[in-house]
Every structure is written in structure tokens, then in C-alpha cells.
Design a protein that fits this description.
mainly alpha; elongated
């Protein structure tokens, strides 16, 4: 948790190399968290439409990204 707080603080650095590196780390974290929660939702029986609505994207976009183990986390089907 402390690392995440530090990275978030570094994202507003005046030094572009520090700030951009922090932004990349935060983007990677968001991608992992999204994949984890999509997997969690699917395990609980959520439809692709329900997941898409919560993420503010189309059903096609979320399905393409995560269906069939093509996303960041492979489904445990």
C-alpha cells in the first residue's frame, strides 16, 4: 500500500521521467485490478453486459479483452 501511495505522489512530479514512470506503474496496476474484478464478476455469474456497464465500455470491448483467456488474467474454467 505504501508503494502505491508513493507512486501516486510521484505521478505529479515536476520531473517528467519520474512522473511518466509513475503513470505507467499506475496504468499497470489499474489493468491488473480491472482483470481481477472482471474475473471476480464472471465467477459470480455477471454477464459481459453488466461488466461493461460498470466499466463504462461496450460489451464487445470488454468481451474482446477478457473472453477466452485473452485478457490479463486467464479464466479458471
Amino acid at each position: 500500500m505504501a508503494d502505491t501511495v508513493q507512486v501516486a505522489a510521484e505521478a505529479s512530479s515536476r520531473d517528467p521521467s519520474v512522473g511518466l514512470r509513475a503513470v505507467r506503474a499506475l496504468r499497470d496496476l489499474v489493468e491488473r485490478l480491472e482483470a481481477l474484478q472482471v474475473d471476480n464478476a464472471r465467477d459470480q455469474g455477471w454477464t459481459w453486459e453488466q461488466i461493461a456497464q460498470q466499466l463504462g465500455v461496450t460489451r464487445q470491448a470488454v468481451h474482446k479483452k477478457y473472453a477466452g483467456g485473452r485478457g490479463l488474467l486467464r479464466r479458471k474454467d
